[in-house]
Amino acid sequence: MYSKLNLKKGDTVVVLSGKDKGKQGEVIQALPKKNQLIVKDVNKVKRHTKPSLKAPQGGIIQKEMPLDACKLMLICPACNKPTRIAHKIIDGKNLRVCKKCGESIQ
């Protein structure tokens, strides 16, 4: 069994630790089984690839690698501050809510 991620694709996050500490970016892909997220323009690495059908040229390609979810924190769209997430049930829907300002996060 794996834990549920509080972050989703499209969320803006900030990196809390590591070589990219303080960088902000948008979540491109969530990997809940591995408890990891891929963030745009964060944790980029260079990969040497052979020519193939996908990349006929081959060469050195830069791509984003996954980050552990515990190293990321959501930035609230309403108050623009890094925040933890609360869950509230409103009108039968489970909504994510900012702990700092109380606004709901889509």
Total DSSP E strands? 11
The CATH class assignment is Mainly Beta
The chain-level mean pLDDT equals: 93
- The number of domains: 1
Low-confidence stretches: none
The proportion of strand residues reads over 45%
Q: From the 3D coordinates, which CATH architecture would you assign?
A: Roll
CATH topology: SH3 type barrels
Q: Using only CA atoms, what is the Rg?
A: 17 Å
Major sheet attributes: 6 strands, antiparallel
- The general outline is elongated
Count helical runs: 0
Strand order of the main beta sheet, please? 6-3-2-1-7-8
Q: Structural class per helix/strand content?
A: mainly beta
How far the N terminus sits from the C terminus, by CA atoms, comes to: 26 Å
* Topology order in helix (H) and strand (E) letters: EEEEEEEEEEE
Helix residue percentage: under 10%
The quaternary state of the protein chains shown equals single chain
Quickly describe the structure.
The protein has 106 residues and is mainly beta.
Q: How would you describe the overall organization of this protein?
A:
The strands form 3 sheets. The protein has a 6-stranded antiparallel beta sheet with strand order 6-3-2-1-7-8, with no helix packed on it. The chain has a 3-stranded antiparallel beta sheet with strand order 9-10-11, with no helix packed on it. It has one domain (12-50, 58-105): SH3 type barrels (Roll), CATH 2.30.30. The chain has no helices and 11 strands. The chain has strands spanning 12-15, 24-31, 36-39, 44-49, 59-64, 67-68, 72-75, 82-83, 85-90, 93-98, 104-105. It has 106 residues and is mainly β. Strand 10 (93-98) and strand 11 (104-105) form a beta hairpin. 12% of the residues are buried.
